[in-house]
Design brief:
- By secondary structure, the chain is α/β, with parallel strands linked by helices.
- Among the domains are: 121 residues, Serine Threonine Protein Phosphatase 5, Tetratricopeptide repeat; 175 residues, Rossmann fold (3-Layer(aba) Sandwich).
- Helix content is 48%, strand content 9%.
- The protein contains 27 helices and 14 strands.
- It has a 7-stranded mixed beta sheet with strand order 7-6-8-9-10-13-14, with helices on both faces. The chain has a 5-stranded parallel beta sheet with strand order 2-1-3-4-5, with helices on both faces. It has a two-stranded antiparallel ribbon with strand order 11-12.
- A hairpin with a 5-residue loop joins strand 13 and strand 14.
- The protein starts with 8 loop residues before the first helix and ends in a 12-residue tail after the last helix.
- 41% of the residues are buried.
Length: 695
């Protein structure tokens, strides 16, 4: 693995003198203890005792703000980098920029951030950090170091032409060319290629007569050196070692690493990295950025651009980089474009998040990790009718192909199993906020399902054969009149419990958060059922207690399970490695795990790998199980989850299910209960001359 090492700038400029005259604006007090501890940490760092140096610098951060605070922050990051604790090093550099906005070490922190991103193979992010140094007033030696790193990224093809164009837009084309040519000269010098370095330097002088690095070029022409003698340099050694090793197989990633959806790409990329790291990095990871970036302009990109960009990136990874498998893209439309290209080339592609129905039918080499809406609807329909015994069901779905597919499959499954869809409603996902009209319609349906009242017991009625006086009749009529005048109950106040369950299909958890409270407000006592996008355990737990009540006892289907041993281990490992929560990283991890498992089982060609993937059954991933059935290549593994009273999402248990083993026999009361009559009154017929009329 090619890895840059941060230049030890304080050595190049005379060791500890780099940190003399620390930021006066930031320092609150002078701490003799910090000064002494800093010197000891610096001594350990120079000796290569990075763990000891890290511990000493960290102690300074526990002191009140002083003259060594920001310098210690930087050195904790640099020590962590040398210990290959890249997540911690990155965190330290970012904290320095946030906490010490006026620090002279901000450019050093940016350089460290770039080195961390490079070591994590997040090349575009590394390039952005290095280029940002070149737009500041950082020292020329520091800018030269950034130029060298940026040139290595570009010349080695770690970013594509679109990424290069983005750098040109931020730096300017002339400045970018200036930087790349000088950086290349430094790189040649580092590798010991003296002739190439000198030629590049001469070329630089000829092209950039007023270039930003001209003073350093002239110094070199006069016999000076390009690189500080004291710098610890492992880059050349690692580069040569890399070229001598047998090339690794390549796994291609199609992810948005820029633009509004970059968090999805970042999460998935880190998930793939973790899976690869756990198995000793058998693959080289090559990615192409499928995102878009238009700066501060609120540009809405058309689907055509995304499809074209994705198709070109897929083709490039297959034809130029010779990847053996692909992971991505994120969204369904882009996955269709990538899937067609990959299948035509015979390269397996795993779409980690796309839920487009029929995506796997594009070809034998296309696999879907997410569960499509039809499978979710069928599973939930069978559970609602056959397990919960629900009969009268309502469904509320988004006006989209996803919602339509889910509603159709759920309704068909429920009908086949004896259920009755009494209401189907639709809404615009993300836009509909007021569901009053829909829930009023559902209440009307619920009212119509209320059974008519049973006939009154005939014993309570006046006997038509009994003679009553006029006064008695008048009294009886008066009482009846009073009953007629009694006002009926307000129907809006009545709780409707005749609809056994309502399925609320959402495309974002925000819609679930909008709909659930309104359902309760309209006094519908029913079982809430949902699709897999209801799985947002952290969002539910963080709700106020009153808001969680709206979600209590909701049941939904999902393939995601972080409560399994594999899921818990993944979360712990991810947080330890990247110092953040995983987000969608589990899906990237599982997609990579599928490829890694097959490769380790000896499936060392794209075709053999495809055949192995198609036979996966019950593979335990970080986000749940993975199985492909019946010739389909879309995951069919789902679990039923329930939201507890305290807002915890847990697997459904036997205690949550109704007891359907006991069926109560219907009994009907006689108008004249036998127990209230004497036996002889029932059996003895009327005698001759008896009459029913009483005087």
């Amino acid at each position: 693995m090619i890895r840059y090492v941060v230049l030890i700038l304080f050595i190049a400029l005379g060791g500890a003198t780099l940190f003399q005259g620390a930021e006066a604006q930031q320092a609150k007090v002078f701490s003799a203890a910090s000064e002494k501890l800093f010197a000891r940490g610096l001594s350990a760092y120079k000796k290569g005792q990075f763990k000891k140096a890290q511990e000493r610098f960290r102690k300074i951060l526990d002191f009140p703000l002083n003259q060594r605070s920001s310098a210690a922050q930087l050195m904790v990051g640099k020590s962590s980098f040398e210990l290959e604790e890249f997540g911690l090093a990155l965190s330290m550099a970012k904290q320095l920029r946030r906490k010490f906005t006026g620090s002279r070490y901000i450019p050093d922190a940016k350089l460290l951030e770039g080195d961390c991103y490079f070591s994590l193979r997040r090349y575009f992010e590394a390039a952005v950090q290095f280029s940002s140094i070149l737009t500041t007033s950082a020292s020329l030696p520091l800018q030269a170091s950034a130029a060298e790193r940026l040139a290595a990224i570009v010349k080695n093809g770690y970013i594509d032409q679109r990424g290069l164009a983005s750098l040109g837009a931020s730096l300017g084309e002339d400045r970018l060319n200036d930087v790349l040519l000088y950086g290349e000269a430094r790189w040649f010098e580092r590798l010991g290629w003296t002739e190439q370095s000198q030629a590049a330097m001469q070329n630089y002088k000829r092209i950039f007569s007023t270039g930003m690095f001209l003073p350093l070029v002239r110094h070199h022409a006069e016999g000076g050196i390009i690189l500080p003698l004291e710098e610890e340099d492992r880059i050349e050694e690692e580069l040569l070692e890399f070229h001598e090793q047998e090339p690794k197989p390549r796994l291609g990633l199609l992810l948005p690493l820029s633009g509004p959806y970059r968090q999805y790409g970042s999460d998935l990329l880190d998930g793939v990295r973790l899976a690869n790291l756990e198995l000793n990095e058998p693959f080289d990871l090559l990615f192409r950025d499928t995102g878009f970036e238009y700066g501060e302009l609120p540009v809405v990109e058309g689907d055509g651009n995304e499809l074209l960009r994705t198709a070109k990136a897929t083709k490039q990874l297959i034809e130029e980089e010779n990847v053996v498998a692909l992971i991505g893209p994120v969204f369904s439309s882009a996955s269709i474009a990538a899937g067609l290209v990959a299948d035509a080339a015979g390269i397996p592609l795993i779409a980690p998040l796309a839920q487009q129905s029929g995506l796997d039918e594009l070809g034998d080499y296309v696999f879907q990790l997410s569960v499509i809406p039809e499978v979710q609807g069928r599973t939930l329909g069978e559970f609602a009718t056959l397990v919960l015994g629900l009969q009268n069901l309502a469904i509320l779905a988004p006006l989209s192909d996803y919602g339509w597919a889910f509603e159709r499959e759920f309704a068909d499954t429920a009908y086949v199993n004896g259920g009755n869809i009494v209401y189907s409603g639709w809404y615009v996902p993300g836009e509909t906020k007021d569901f009053k009209h829909i829930f009023e319609e559902i209440r009307e349906v619920g009212f119509s399902l209320i059974p008519p009242p049973l006939p009154e017991d005939s014993l309570a009625l006046a006997d038509s054969l009994v003679w009553l006086s006029d006064d008695a009749i008048a009294s009886e009529g008066s009482e009846l009149g009073e009953e007629v005048e009694e006002a009926p109950p307000d129907s809006a106040e009545i709780f409707i419990d005749t609809i056994d369950g309502i399925v609320i299909v959402v495309e974002s958890f925000e819609d679930a958060n909008t709909i659930a409270p309104q359902l309760r407000f309209h006094r519908l006592e029913t079982q809430i059922l949902g699709n897999d996008i209801w799985y947002e355990p952290e969002a539910i737990r963080q709700m106020p207690r009153g808001d969680r009540e709206y979600f209590k006892s909701a049941i939904f289907v999902s393939r995601y399970r972080d409560s399994t041993p594999r899921g818990r281990k993944f979360i712990d490992d991810f947080r330890r490695e990247f110092r953040r929560d995983p987000g969608f990283a589990a899906y990237g991890y599982d997609a990579a795990l599928m490829v890694l498992e097959g490769w380790n089982m000896g499936q060392r060609s794209p075709g053999a790998l495809r055949d192995w993937l198609a036979e996966i059954k019950g593979l335990e991933g970080a986000a749940g199980k993975i199985s492909f059935f019946a010739g389909r290549r879309t995951n069919s593994e789902l679990e039923l989850l329930k939201i507890s009273d305290r807002g915890w999402v847990r697997p459904l248990s036997a205690e949550d299910l109704p007891d359907l083993s006991k069926v109560e026999e219907e009994t009907y009361d006689l108008d004249l209960p036998l127990e209230e009559l004497e036996l002889d009154e029932v059996e003895e017929p009327l005698g001759e001359g008896d009459t029913l009329l009483q005087e």
